[in-house]
Amino acid sequence: MLSEGHQATSAREFWDIWTFRHQTMLDTGVTPRPGLAEAVDKLQAAEVSLVHLAKITSPQRRFVIFLAEGRTRCIACMG
Asked: Which regions of the chain does DSSP assign to beta strands (E)?
């Protein structure tokens, strides 16, 4: 279930944000989370497609998932 007021955002906007985060991690010596580089590539390939961001958390792991506009296909995932 999506939160009230939730809207899809262009993959390009997510790409801008996560590319900056990824580069900042690399520049400062922080190990990027697993799958981040691949997620950035996939968001770039999705270009202007609308994407939903979902988070799945547990005490041991946390995943960020980018879903296609219809929420039936995963565009990218990082853990």
From this structure: 9-10, 50-57, 62-68, 74-78
